Amino acid sequence: MLVMPSLLRLVVAASSALLAGAVPVPVSVLSPAVLFTRENSFNASLPNITIFATGGTIAGSASSSSEVTGYQAGALGVDVLINAVPEILNISNVNGVQFSNIGSQAMNSSLLVDLSQRIQKAVDSPYVSGVVVTHGTDTLEETAYFLDLTIRTEKPVVVVGAMRPATAISADGPMNLLESVTLAVSPLGRGRGVMVVLNDRIGSAYYITKTNANSLDTFKAYEQGFLGAFEDTKPFFFYPPAIPVGRPYFDVSRNHAANGMPHVDILYGYQELNAALIPAAVKSGAKGLVLAGSGAGSWTDDGNAAVQKAIKENSTAVVYSRRPLDGFVAQGPIEDGVELGVGGGFLNPQKARILLQLALNAGYNLAQIRSIFE
Prior knowledge:
Residues 1-22 form the signal peptide. Helix content is 24%, strand content 21%.
């Protein structure tokens, strides 16, 4: 259950340095940037972090403490989340930003671009030690992956969520948030790319995925494993700092957030696939397609013929991915001696979509797209 300790006070931050990159998105602004300190006293000896709250289950509210379905996601503000975990203020001065308050299924590329730009501005400030993003778990891996590909910093950037709403008995959000802040202020978290924290585990945004719709232990990377874990809220790592092999970087600092990213659809492969879905997606404006094929990206003959036509007539960018939870798609199918599209590599369909959007936005040609996937 949430508690609201009286010893915590909210103060609109006066320091422009602390507020670097902390302006909420205009379309979703709920409150000004707020500095959270203990007893209204800024502690110059503590590191400074910025928490961007976007909504989700971690900010969810239900009518009873036993209700863990049917709740309202994104019902609580960043002030409530921080005040529920006063221990955060023992280790940091926190600049809280209510970026949005939505269920993560409503996240879109316009918001992602804006969020990336705000975070980049925050970590570029010498006064900010790290950033935490609270987020719904349904599309958390997509947001975390987008941020991993578009933010350039050695500082810790941590994306955190929860599987139970904040009003639930044994809500997991408060501990996840405390561990995320602990990681964001830790020197051990530097140089590791964007990280995801849930259930006492630290995952790489590049590989982590949600594997269960309900379980607390849902985020995993089966082949690649976790980066580290927590003991008494303190992070420890299994490996020295590193980023995933082949991870590209895309500069979206000059993008107009309102324009979002190019339209890319995901189509799911199955027996007796309706191949008409492919031209329908292209007709609806898709500049790229990610095909979640069976096995290692297998697609029906009719489907491949429709793909071949879409590539020839519309220059549609196509990535073959997979339905299975893990694995590698080495290449697209070969038709008439020519590879259709490109293989999605280790990426699942939802992350392959993010990468293809960024590549198309950057103006990549087919050879360049192939180089970042395969």
